[in-house]
Amino acid sequence: MENFTPNTILVTGGAGFIGSNFIKNFMDCNPGCKVINLDILTYAGNLENLKSVENMQNYRFIKGDIADSKLVARLLTEENIDAIIHFAAESHVDRSITGPEIFVKTNVLGTQILLEESRKYWNEGKNKPFRFLQISTDEVYGSLGETGFFREDTPLAPNSPYSASKAAADMLVRAYHETFGLPTLNTRCSNNYGPFQFPEKLIPLMINNIINKKPLPVYGDGQNVRDWLHVKDHSTAVETVLKKGKPGSLFNIGGNNEWKNIDIVNLICDTLDKKLGREQSEGRQLITLVKDRQGHDKRYAIDAAKIKNELGWAPAHKFQEGIIETIDWYLENQDWVRNVTSGEYRNYQ
Ligand code: NAD
Ligand code: TDX
User: Fold this and answer.
1) Which residues contact 205 (CB under 8 A, 6 or more apart)?
2) Does the Cβ of 92 fall within 6 Å of ligand 2?
3) d(CA 348, CA 345)
4) Could you please report the per-residue DSSP string of 218-261?
5) Measured between alpha carbons, how far is 88 from 66 in angstroms, rounded to an integer?
6) CB 23 within 8 A of CB 11
7) What separation in angstroms does the CA of 124 have from each of 38, 181, 188?
8) What are phi and psi of 5, to 5 degrees?
9) Dihedral (C-alpha) 242, 247, 250, 252: value to the nearest 10 degrees?
10) Which residues have C-beta within 8 Å of that of residue 51, sequence separation ≥ 6?
11) Cβ–Cβ < 8 Å for 13, 19
12) Is the pTM of the predicted complex or chain greater than 0.85?
């Protein structure tokens, strides 16, 4: 199949963890493509993440809301956009339990507005080559038992307000393809790790707390399983789907890398004990089993055979190396961590 080669892409949520990693990797590999980054800069969006590209000719940042239909319509036309890569979302499960409304507003309504403006723009452009790529998550499938994997045909069974909002968005993407023929793509990735992840998520939270000798809150019995993928591998998978995926198709993305939460936390503790020259097991003594997350999914595991067989994508990062590099990145970027945990970064963006 012929590759889709965009000249200009609109990335939403490009100041967040995965979006910013994607933009940097994509611009490295596609120097001829212009990247427009639309991000409202919530607590999770940080322009510090994009320092290395901010002055490049082929990069433009716009502070704005994906739910602002006029702004989206203007950007699509003004920049002659060929593809939208839609990362923008409220992304933290715990926040969706204490405050679900913004998840519906951003993840469902925001996605619908982007789809609607894309449809109008694509129709006006006499159906020029265009892609709408929805970045979704394995959490839409719900929870697995001890065995089995999520495949693309696994029924959706979201258990948190976050995953329900992502599932609703996926269904709208599907509907815009089926009803209007909009050339959509949809990816569902497993848990990402790597640099620039906000320290509310498991891995950066544990690293940060160990460094600062604070308790390590492990939910329930710590036996829940997640399938971890390096954020750079997620980026290459998204780029592959964008360029080679058939419109209307859906791809799972995963690293075949399952870990119990407690084993990851132990690994981070032991690694940091050595790196910080602390006594053996000093880190592990900080582990505190706390009340379980409500509706806590037991196990996620992705079957990524489709993207491998159809598009030839496979992860390049080995977890044992990627996690050490990630720990090193947090050790070397304590200013970044201090800024985001104090909220200071919000004063100058
Ligand atoms: P993140 O929370 O780090 O970043 C989200 C970004 O979206 C932020 O920069 C924020 O400012 C922006 N944003 C939020 N609301 C917006 C709005 N109304 N308009 C414009 N921008 C807005 O999230 P992340 O971890 O980078 O996740 C990115 C995407 O990938 C999400 O769609 C998420 O569901 C999906 N995903 C994440 C993971 C993971 O492990 N983190 C795994 C699979 C899929
Ligand atoms: O303090 C904690 N203690 C703990 O035990 C935190 C923050 C998490 N956990 C557990 C809950 C999960 O089983 O660790 C696991 C990972 O938690 P998160 O980092 O919050 O990720 P998760 O809930 O699995 O969701 C992530 O992966 C899928 C992302 O946040 C989503 O955006 C993505 O869609």
Assistant:
1) 199
2) yes
3) 6
4) EETTS--EEEEEEHHHHHHHHHHHHHHPPTTEEEEE--S-EEEH
5) 8
6) yes
7) 22, 14, 30
8) -120, 95
9) -20
10) none
11) yes
12) yes
Look at residues 243, 201, 329, 234 and name the one whose alpha carbon lies nearest to residue 24: 234
Handedness of CA 56, 62, 66, 70 (dihedral sign): negative
To which residue do tokens 């980026």 refer? Answer: 235
Ligand of minimum distance to the alpha carbon of 141: 2
Other beta carbons within 10 Å of 230: 25
Give the C-alpha separation, 120 to 115, whole Å.
9
- Choosing from 121, 162, 193, 345, the catalytic residue is 162
**What is the pairing mode between strands 191-193 and 8-12?**
unpaired
To the nearest 10°, report the CA torsion of 119, 71, 85, 77.
60
Report the alpha-carbon distance of residue 210 to residue 315 in Å, rounded: 29
Report the distance separating Cα 90 and Cα 229, nearest Å. 20
Eight-class DSSP state of 153 = T
The strand pairing partners of 39, in sequence order, are 63
CB 301 less than 6 A from any atom of ligand 1: no
39 is an active site residue? no
pLDDT digits (tens, 9 = 90+) for 101-156: 999 999 999 999 999 999 999 999 877 899 999 999 999 999 999 999 999 999 99
Pairwise CA distance, residues 311 & 296, whole Å? 33
Q: Tell me, in angstroms, the distance from the centre of ligand 2 to residue 198's CA.
A: 12
pLDDT digits (tens, 9 = 90+) for 271-322: 999 999 999 999 999 999 999 999 999 999 999 999 999 999 999 999 999 9
